[in-house]
Amino acid sequence: MMSSINRGSGTEASHPDARPSSPAPLNMNHYTNKKSAAESMLDVALLMANASQLKAVLDQGPDFSFYTPIVTLISISLCLQVTVGVLLIFIVRWDLNDEQKHWRLDILEDLATCLVFIIVVVNVFITAFGVNKPN
Fold first, then answer.
1. How far lies 76's CA from each of 17, 26, 30, 57, 120, in Å?
2. In this structure, what DSSP letter does residue 133 have?
3. Do 73 and 122 form a contact (C-beta atoms < 8 A)?
4. How far apart are CA 6 and CA 14, in angstroms?
5. Pairs from 40-48 (Cβ < 8 Å, separation ≥ 24)
6. How large is the average pLDDT for residues 45-58?
7. Which of 20, 64, 119, 132 could form a disulfide with 60 if both were Cys (CB 3.0 to 4.6 A apart)?
8. Against a cut of 0.90, is the pTM above it?
9. Inter-axis angle of helices 67-93 and 102-129, nearest 10
10. How far is it, in rounded angstroms, from Cα 51 to Cα 74?
11. Element spanning 86, H or E
């Protein structure tokens, strides 16, 4: 009966406080790549939404009351989103283990974060002005 409980190889099964072996250390490059990929997917979703809004405004034509401000804001948002996408590509391509590049990566990450904040603010204004699809 005791042999069926004690199937482990050594200390794990025989010592009640023994912990299982720790997982492999965190690979920061792998983690950052996954994080950047998730951010890129969100960026693509917003890019598609802005493109759809731009199409709706252009379909309504210049008679739409906020035509020029909305087209300008959507264009700014689209340009900033493309810029953030390019920044994310550079961030993913650089090796985090190279300490000489940490200051560049910090600057790029801070720049990307600031641009994402600006994109959010611009999109709040786009939503406030309202984009209605034509009837």
1. 59, 38, 32, 15, 11
2. -
3. yes
4. 7
5. 40/85, 40/88, 43/81, 43/84, 43/85, 43/88, 44/85, 46/77, 46/81, 46/119, 46/123, 47/78, 47/81, 47/82, 47/85
6. 89
7. 64
8. no
9. 160
10. 8
11. helix 67-93
- With contact defined as beta carbons under 8 Å apart, do 54 and 78 qualify? yes
Q: What is the dihedral of CA 28, 34, 38, 44, to 10 degrees?
A: 110
Phi, psi for 21 (deg, rounded to 5): -55, 140
Element at 95 (helix H, strand E): none
Question: Are 13 and 7 within 8 A, CB to CB?
Answer: yes
Query: Which residue in 88, 83, 86 sits closest to 105, CA to CA?
Result: 88
- 7: pLDDT confidence band, cut at 50, 70 and 90? very low
User: Any idea which residue has 């210049």 for tokens?
Assistant: 62
DSSP 6-45: --SSSHHHH-TTPPPPPPPPP-HHHHHHHHHHHHHHHHHH
